[in-house]
Amino acid sequence: MKNVMLLIALWIFSLPNLQAQEAIFRSQDLISPEMEDNKVTFRFYAPNAQKVEITGDFLPTEKIDSPMGKVDGPGKVTLIKNDKGIWEFKTETLAPELYSYSFLVDGLPALDPNNPFLIRDVASVTNIFIIGGAQADLYKVQQVPHGTVAKRWYPSEGLRMVRRLTIYTPPGYEQSTQSYPVLFLLHGAGGDEEAWMTLGRASQILDNLIAQGKAKPMIVVMPNGNVIQDGAPGEGSKGFYKPQFMIPQTMDGTYEAHFGEIIDFVEANYRVNKEKSQRAIAGLSMGGFHTLHISRFYPNAFDYVGLFSAAIMPRKDATGRVYKDIDATLEQQRDNGYQLYWIAIGETDFLYDANQEFIKKLDAMKMPYTYVETEGGHIWRNWRIYLSQFVPQLF
Amino acid sequence: MKNVMLLIALWIFSLPNLQAQEAIFRSQDLISPEMEDNKVTFRFYAPNAQKVEITGDFLPTEKIDSPMGKVDGPGKVTLIKNDKGIWEFKTETLAPELYSYSFLVDGLPALDPNNPFLIRDVASVTNIFIIGGAQADLYKVQQVPHGTVAKRWYPSEGLRMVRRLTIYTPPGYEQSTQSYPVLFLLHGAGGDEEAWMTLGRASQILDNLIAQGKAKPMIVVMPNGNVIQDGAPGEGSKGFYKPQFMIPQTMDGTYEAHFGEIIDFVEANYRVNKEKSQRAIAGLSMGGFHTLHISRFYPNAFDYVGLFSAAIMPRKDATGRVYKDIDATLEQQRDNGYQLYWIAIGETDFLYDANQEFIKKLDAMKMPYTYVETEGGHIWRNWRIYLSQFVPQLF
């Protein structure tokens, strides 16, 4: 009996799943994606499918239909089936980047069962891979000193809940007695306190820039900008539910008005240099909108401000007291002075025009800023690059 | 132009994906899983499929073929297609639990595109959902005080690398000056420093048991037991690669021999009560094997020892110095004394016989232990339950 049990054990242990007794046998036992010389081969086993396609941001965008005519959509390529029922596609040489992809099997979405590395963006999950080199080496876990990443909960009296945030403390923080500068880093609509860590590779970027001597050791605080949530979907008390893109109250001023609580919490609980010269704030899309408004609502709090593809646009629900006296508070912020007001936008971003208008406004006000225009649109690829460019300018 | 941009913006903002300009349109816009009175409806859109099945641990196991004949495998049920091409299956009332599932579309594995909550077990990814009530309420994020969960790196001189671990500090830790007891909690083969947090719901279980007054506030340290890794797949310097079940050197004594480094790191960096009476160790499967050997290799270090479905079996690679003098060190551990030596195993676990033999050995040695036998096999459901039962007995 003992030998039979051991044989069963060895057989089960040869399966790729510890839950072997109730295993869900999913693995196809292929290698996908396979990387060689920055070319990537994708494989998908589907002997009876009529068509297997792959779609992802490693492919050129294609024009797709929208209510306003053709707009840029994700590229798509059909894989070739071999005699074993395995569909395959090999890319040309890809530029360094973190890419995401998924398959379409006879038109239906399917994740790559051979790649367990996934990323959630709002309610969509895709597979990811990294082509190293250039800026993408910043997105990898390298053999350098690593900061600590903590998920911590802070009491918000204003929002009447205990809320979750992500906090990065740099390598050496725990052994040191010094106080550190702080960057508050805000997510976009549909994101949460997880987004900059997963989609944005923030801790890897910070670890690597600090190791290269290109960034000062700093604390990075990544709060949740959705004031009706206590934590990210699946991580808060609302449990598992399908995340939405636009969440009520995200751009009505509530978050900005209570942002001081987050600053207070961090300064009370971490060794933080509380001087304005040691405080930065930046955000992407909706987080850029929040950054704009927080930095002028607290007009003498931040010496460094970063708007990444900021969602600067008129909003019907922007009725909160935060949005009163926009011009006067911007002037106050200007007069108080700061080191850097950094605006970055992609040339095909749908918020491009809105950002140009904002810049004109700043020009008219003689409010200093640095403007960076890049290729591409409203995409995480740009936001990782913007973070990598912004952080070395801080403190 | 501005109005057109705004219209495009509104259209894009109505999509479920912020990467709209390069969006991968995956969402099927169904509700799945839908829960009502602890019955769950699953839905999958596949108008052209011949057959859509669902497999998961909410279904009774079925006999499947193996080299040793029929063994228990995951249950499977076929969904019914409606005239809109949506396949549907509604369960009977399910008992409280965290369940995992995936679909099979014409025999091919597919995740639920309407459920972004996923869990990785070795190289397999499945969707998850929770039916609340009873023990499963411990697995939910409740509105109770939350501990902090940090991913931190410790220097291992013995393994010559800086290694990642997960550390849970209980609610109030940061505001307190007291020293806390510590539980070292070890994963199984194919797991890593993520496993107890994701599959094991350890931080939720601790938060909830502490809030209910059933467990003492404690620190929980979840290291990585794969000595050739510096971090979990995708989180360490090896980057993204397909995780394996049995990793070289996981059960050759290297981990156990260097475990003191982890204890030292935690005690040097956290407010830890260093008395034996305030130190516990437990692990599942391979982690139970590690627990057995660590607790007798350091025979006066732990007053609480937990073997959850422990992989007690002869291993060819168990040649390390740690495995010398097993009986003598067990006797030493017995003579030094301890509060609890807790052994739990499921009645259909393939390690059941091995655990019975170990118990006979302990009986013969007059080494005290507490034995708990449960239904079920070598599955996470049991390990969550074992953790929930073990933790209230500590300190």
From TrEMBL, chains A, B:
Organism: Mongoliitalea lutea
SUPFAM superfamilies for the chain: alpha/beta-Hydrolases (SSF53474), E set domains (SSF81296)
Any single biological process term in GO: carbohydrate metabolic process
GO molecular function: acyltransferase activity, transferring groups other than amino-acyl groups; hydrolase activity, hydrolyzing O-glycosyl compounds
InterPro entries on file: AB_hydrolase_fold, Esterase-like, Glyco_hydro_13_N, Ig-like_fold, Ig_E-set, Mycobacterial_A85_antigen
Signal peptide coordinates: 1-20
Name of the protein this chain belongs to: Glycoside hydrolase family 13 N-terminal domain-containing protein
Keywords: Signal
Ranges where the Glycoside hydrolase family 13 N-terminal domain occurs: 36-103
Top-rank lineage group of the source organism: Bacteria
